Amino acid sequence: MIKDDKRRAMLEKVLKEHDYQESALLEILHRAQEIYGYLDKELLMDISGSLNLPPSHVYGVVTFYSFFKLKKSGEHVVTGCLGTACYVNEVEQILEAIEQEFDLKRGGSTADGKLSLLLTRCIGACAMAPNIVVDYEVIGKATKELVIQKIKQALGGVKAETS
Amino acid sequence: MSTNTVKLKIDGVDVTAAEGTTILKAAKDVGIIIPTLCSLEGLTAYGGCRLCLVEVSGTPKLFPACTTPIGPGMDVTTQSDKLKEYRKIAVQLLLAERTHICSVCVADDHCELQAMANQLGVDHVMFERNWSREEIDSTHDFLVIDRNRCILCTRCIRVCDQIEGVHTLDLKLRGKDSQVIMDLDEKWGNSCSCTSCRKCAKVCPVGAIYVEGEPIEHTKKRDVAEFIVERRNRK
Ligand code: SF4
Ligand code: SF4
Ligand code: FES
Q1: CA distance to A87, B35, B55, B124, per residue, from B116 (Å)
Q2: Which amino acid residue places its CA nearest to atom 6 of ligand 1?
Q3: Which of A5, A57, A94, A99 is the most exposed place for a label (fewest CB within 10 A)?
Q4: CATH code at A150?
Q5: Closest alpha carbon within chain A to B192
């Protein structure tokens, strides 16, 4: 995807703005993700070379923050909150149900690329735990049934309403 | 140029050492050995294993000796029932975190974690064990990493960066999901920066990195970093 000249030119501008300083790594990763949507290995190798940073260091930083994405997300994104409150309120069971229902694994997407299931640390809505975010809508006090219905709606399956 | 010195007490012994010296080093210089796992002479301090915790009078807080600099008038205790209890817990947590089965480990009898457990009298693990099942990477010509035995001490990462100078290794993710990686999380055999110097295998305190088919006592050479650093700084 680096070959895409327009986006590479945008990235070059960002790198230049920061004078190729290694201390700007986080900011550059942010902007690179805005430009490309996600950070694949080719792009990370490019950034590692531009900032003269070891690839393993760049990879370590990227994977430290759940904000950064290594893979292209599906058209629709479901995010499960793994904060303590959600965890004790059994968000795990909902995640498992989503994985089964839509045949995907957390951190990954469905084979057709329509749906991704991501995890995050805490979205700060603990009073409503467990929380699941479907695209941009936060579903508080989530249940398996409710979430699966919401996802089906998002995917365009109107028939979900009748259940 | 004279450096400022600091006077303090360690286990009742009067100690004078240069400002900025760590408690660990100041103690060692007067023959007091504080238990450690992540610390290694010749590498920068990391402060990850918490074996080296010591008491400092006047505060209930415990301090890691390997990263805490000495202060004037400090009164440090390196051995007490409380510290022993904490150290035993630290070892048990390490044992519980991944899959440590000494009887089938290459490093059996040459393992610093095992030795530490013996030294402290850890005879059981009171925490529920988290049997990790990470795939073993043996794609390198002769180096193998079994992350199920890794205690995340980062010695390998530091020796690779600070002594070999290539920074092939780093940590990905965080907390209990952390793993030692090569480059962009490649298989070791595909690493574009590893020079196969095997220093990581030499310093690994456990059986996580080893040389295929070589008796572990030949591989381990935990003073390699100190040896190189001392000599290369001589003008
Ligand atoms: S063999 Fe040497 S270069 Fe390769 S990872 Fe180990 S320490 Fe680094
Ligand atoms: S592989 Fe060995 S040296 Fe490296 S972090 Fe794990 S235990 Fe420490
Ligand atoms: S030796 Fe100090 S924290 Fe590991």
Answers
A1: 34, 8, 20, 13
A2: B200
A3: A5
A4: 3.40.30.10
A5: A55
